[in-house]
Design goal:
The structure holds two protein chains of two kinds.
Chain A (H helix, E strand, L loop, with lengths): L9 E2 L3 H6 L3 E5 L2 E6 L4 H10 L1 E5 L4 E7 L6 H12 L15 E7 L5 E9 L5 E6 L4 H12 L3 E5 L4 E6 L3 H8 L11 E6 L2 E6 L8 E6 L1 H12 L4 E4 L1 H10 L26 H6 L5 H8 L6 E7 L9 E3 L5 E11 L4 E8 L9 E6 L2 E8 L14
Parallel strand pairs in A: 1-3, 4-14
Antiparallel strand pairs in A: 2-3, 4-10, 5-8, 5-9, 6-7, 7-8, 10-13, 11-12, 12-13, 15-18, 15-20, 16-17, 16-19, 17-18, 19-20
Helix pairs in contact in A: 2-7
Chain B lengths: L1 E4 L4 E6 L2 E6 L1 H7 L2 E5 L6 E2 L4 E7 L3 E5 L4 E6 L2 H4 L3 H4 L8 E5 L11 H7 L2
Classes of the chains: A alpha+beta, B alpha+beta.
């Protein structure tokens, strides 16, 4: 897919910061964003694994979905707003606790994935925090708005800045700047005051590390960016490191490892099909997805450890005899492992860890072994109960 | 001894009838951290402009083209274990292959240092 020239691209509120820091600007999801800063992807990647990396993810699609006529009964309002969005997704939204986020999937009638997204229940009743992907946001927002009709209002927040602070030292950085936010558990969010600026902070991310995503007004974005970078534990990260970090964490990238033909079960995201929704079979494509869950499927996403040159997206996966059995949907070099890794789809019979496969790189077969994902263990923050 | 350049950012250092080929400091910087280098087989006959090697960065693969026609007579085996030499010392330790030049007149068609420098301004 051809990306437009940089003149046609949207800029995030932090564009000037990226340019002045020497970021190499590339088109991504319709936005001009830094691929990397001068030190390069490898150094950036390792810094996030060891310390804290700061990402501008303002191109994504944060939004708030609110009931048009809320009552004073917050439980009833949450049930009402959940009932409006649940027909589009496979997650249990009604069951969310106040301040809790859930990873879920927007599905089409065939059970294919329209997008992967986060939905959170605000502490006040009748409001959901919905964060979708950059490349799909216009379609997602239109679909959600049409589905909820006049019963709820979708307020896009993608004119604001969204910053992701990720890494083992992220919590210590936040403790110095916004100590209240460190009370959040993994997959919790809330509204905070940061030196007079209203921000929404979620404890989540896309690197496999502990971290925070901060939604802030565009007018405060640069000051917040600067304040976070003033901490010597924090360095700015580009899209390159974001991609290599999420790949090591085994997290799918929409448009690559997920698309409108791929179901949650095929994508090995069965956990995102909530129990209550499975039992009710009341989500789009339920018939297919439930049958696949019982084993009736032809392909499944796996992780591959690749020997030799990286196998990139589109590379064929071969079985031991050399027959084509699947395709790589994301692949590259894993800086934390010093090896090439890939995500791809193969028949279920070939998904057992240890299965010896091959990948075709420049018409040559290279050994590849099925391994469990994540490739690098997740280190999310788990609150002691 | 003379060094010439292609518009695709390869250099060839000509020593008699042999050329040592690699990529320029500008090219390695554009590519970023190089994690894998695929070298041609010794004895392979390459035509000018033909794909000779591939360098892989974290993000992408990039082809390296033969600056002139000739036969590969040696490759830099150090790059198998230390592909990063292409980043740290592209013009010396990070060379890629030596080629026996088939037609010396092809050298004259390449860019000289000034011509290449203008290209990367």
């Amino acid at each position: 897919m051809a990306e437009p020239s940089t003149e046609d691209l949207k800029q995030t509120p932090l564009y000037e910061r990226h340019v002045s820091a020497g970021g190499r600007i590339v088109p991504f999801g319709g936005y001009a964003l830094p691929l990397q800063y001068p030190t390069g992807i490898m150094t950036e990647h390792k810094w996030t694994r060891d310390h804290a990396g700061l990402f501008d993810v303002s191109h994504m699609g944060p939004s708030f979905l609110t009931l048009s006529a809320p009552t004073s009964d917050t439980a009833a309002d949450h049930a009402a707003i959940s009932a409006l969005i649940e027909p589009l997704v496979c997650g249990d939204i009604a069951g969310l606790k106040p301040g809790q986020l859930r990873y879920t999937l927007l599905l089409n009638d065939k059970g294919g994935t329209v997008d992967d997204l986060m939905i959170g229940r605000a502490t006040e009743g009748g409001t959901l925090y919905v964060i979708v992907n950059a490349g799909t946001k216009d379609g997602d927002f239109a679909l959600i708005a049409k589905t909820v009709g006049d019963k709820a209002m979708l307020h896009r927040a993608d004119d604001r800045a969204l910053l992701a602070l990720q890494g083992p030292e992220a919590v210590n950085v936040m403790a110095a700047l916004m100590p209240e936010a460190t009370d959040l558990g993994f997959m919790q969010f809330g509204d905070f005051d940061c030196n007079g600026v209203p921000v929404t902070i979620a404890r989540c991310g896309y690197t496999g590390e502990d971290g925070f995503e901060i939604l802030a007004p565009a007018s405060s974005a640069s000051a917040l960016w600067d304040a976070l970078l003033a901490d010597p534990r924090v360095k700015p990260m580009g899209l390159g490191a974001r991609d290599s970090l999420r790949l090591e964490a085994g997290l799918p990238l929409y448009g690559h490892d997920l698309d409108e033909t791929i179901s949650p079960i095929e994508a090995d995201l069965g956990f995102a099909v909530s129990k209550r929704r499975r039992e009710a079979a009341d989500f789009p494509g339920a018939e297919r997805i439930l049958a696949e869950r019982e084993g009736q499927l032809t392909r499944k996403r796996v992780g591959l450890l690749v020997e030799g040159a990286p196998a990139r997206e589109g590379a064929e996966i071969l079985d031991a005899s050399g027959a084509v059995v699947g395709v790589v949907t994301s692949g590259g070099f894993a800086p934390s492992l010093g090896k090439a890794i890939a995500l791809g789809f193969v028949p279920p019979a070939l998904t057992t860890p240890g299965t010896k496969l091959q990948v075709s790189v420049r018409d040559r077969a290279q050994p590849a072994e099925v391994v469990p994902t994540p490739f690098v263990p997740h280190r999310y923050f788990r609150k002691a109960i | 001894m003379t060094t010439k350049f292609t518009p695709d950012h390869e250099y060839i250092r000509v020593e008699g009838s042999t050329g040592i080929v690699g990529i320029t400091p500008y090219a390695q910087e554009q590519l970023g951290d190089i994690v894998f280098v695929e070298l041609p087989a010794v004895g392979k006959v390459l035509k000018k402009g033909e794909e000779a090697a591939v360098v892989e960065s974290v993000k992408a693969a990039s082809e390296i083209y033969a600056p002139v026609t000739g036969t590969v007579i040696e490759v830099n085996g150090m790059l198998t274990n230390e592909p990063g030499l292409v980043n740290t010392d592209p013009e010396n330790a990070g060379w890629m292959f030596k080629i026996e030049i088939a037609d010396a007149s092809e050298i004259d068609t390449l860019l000289d240092a000034d011509g290449y420098a203008e290209l990367t301004l």
